[in-house]
Amino acid sequence: xxxxxxxxxxxxxxxxxxxxxxxxxxxxxxxxxxxxxxxxxxxxxxxxxxxxxxxxxxxxxxxxxxxxxxxxxxxxxxxxxxxxxxxxxxxxxxxxxxxxxxxxxxxxxxxxxxxxxxxxxxxxxxxxxxxxxxxxxxxxxxxxxxxxxxxxxxxxxxxxxxxxxxxxxxxxxxxxxxxxxxxxxxxxxxxxxxxxxxxxxxxxxxxxxxxxxxxxxxxxxxxxxxxxxxxxxxxxxxxxxxxxxxxxxxxxxxxxxxxxxxxxxxxxxxxxxxxxxxxxxxxxxxxxxxxxxxxxxxxxxxxxxxxxxxxxxxxxxxxxxxxxxxxxxxxxxxxxxxxxxxxxxxxxxxxxxxxxxxxxxxxxxxxxxxxxxxxxxxxxxxxxxxxxxxxxxxxxxxxxxxxxxxxxxxxxxxxxxxxxxxxxxxxxxxxxxxxxxxxxxxxxxx
Length: 446
Prior knowledge:
51% of the residues lie in helices and 12% in strands. It is built from 18 helices and eleven strands. The protein has helices at 3-6, 18-35, 54-74, 76-82, 92-106, 130-143, 159-166, 197-209, 225-247, 249-263, 270-277, 279-292, 301-308, 352-360, 370-374, 379-392, 396-417, 424-434; strands at residues 9-13, 46-50, 107-110, 121-124, 149-152, 172-177, 186-190, 213-216, 326-329, 332-338, 343-346. The strands form two sheets. It has an eight-stranded mixed β-sheet with strand order 3-2-1-4-5-6-7-8, sandwiched between helices. Helix 9 packs antiparallel against helix 17 (396-417) and helix 10 (249-263) crosses helix 17 (396-417). The longest helix is centred in the middle third of the chain and has 23 residues, at 225-247.
């Protein structure tokens, strides 16, 4: 059975979650494009979107409809070609409406796992819990035939573990989308030796169809992206604890978040990124990776305390940011959580946070916000000059930034040394494309 035959009946399990919904959107678009080709006009396409949360499925339907409209508005030229035989579709809004209707006609939403039985391509996007995933994969495999292929979105669990414990015989591959899947270009592809060659070929074809940049990661817990992110974030938290005696823990966390964003020229500070992913999700990644990699300190009790107090971050249904390490007002950081007091210490430019800013010192000449550098045609030149100035600076902020950059580079090199990544370029590609960094961690800037 080739890729196009498999694409006629696909299932996403865990479809109403943050990752599952984005995967569903991408598949709905590709399946609809195939359905509209002349050679497929008599073919039936079905995308089964399954989730245990029925209310969330209602939200998924609304999300798909809204996002399909936006996607169609951006591709009207291509859609005109697909609908060229439809004389009734004259205006762009006619074509957009037809595409949305056709896409939604492909979709079937429900809570019944039995809907997967005729699918030969199944995407698993449930929470990062090994036992849950294994049990689910076993149940699905009993409902389908022995020719079914599985694409798991796990971000940290070794694929060989899922394959072995669910007894899938090499019919599963790691296809790790980045959040949000519909926007992020990167997919980490993890195919241990047990993965069937034809499945790997189909995964590459899928990446091409979905216009994704594929980076291969070896089958070691955390892979490249979370392998770096986990260690990078733990470094910031542990450094903050070291500085807590001088600055208090909330003050030190404020400093590390500010340094990691402003002086490392990242899209958001490290604590803001952990909040975006979810403190509970980050803690889960920590626990998972630590369970497979021994001899390395990959946990921190502050994370466990935050989860215990249900200070979890993440996003609301409308996409706005929930409070985590930081408190948010209009989606912007406005305070930092004080674990001892159990409340947020709000930023005060004329008080404590302003005093910390002054202690960090003046920023090096050439400091430009991430967003402005992202599209700057002279970005490489600007980055090179900025880091020269940073290296020449001896302010507290510059010292912390240089130490952070060295640690980030060490983490990247460690991922290559331990064969998580095959090359420095693969590490850099993941951070550039999956995390939107302006530069890879393995560099000559420091």
